[in-house]
Amino acid sequence: MSTIVHFLERAGVVRDGRVIEPELYAVFSRCLERNLKCGLSHHTLSALWSDAQEKRPTVPYPLKVALGVSARVEEVNVASARWYASRKLDGIRCLIFVGGDDAAVAVSRTGRQLAGAAGVTRSVAGDLCASPPFAALASRDRLVIDGELCVIEEHGDGTFMEDYNATASAAKSKRVSDDLVYFPFDLLTYTEFCDWMHGTRLFSERAAVLDKAVAWCLEHRPDTPLRRLPQQRLRSAGELVSLHAHALEQGWEGLMLRRDEPYEARRSSAIRKIKEWQDAEYVVQDIECRTMSLMVDGVIVEEHALSNIIISHKGNRVSVGSGFTSAQRLHYAAHPDQLIGRMVTVTYFEESTSQLGGHL
Question: Where's the ATP-dependent DNA ligase family profile domain (predicted)?
Answer without folding.
Answer: 79-275
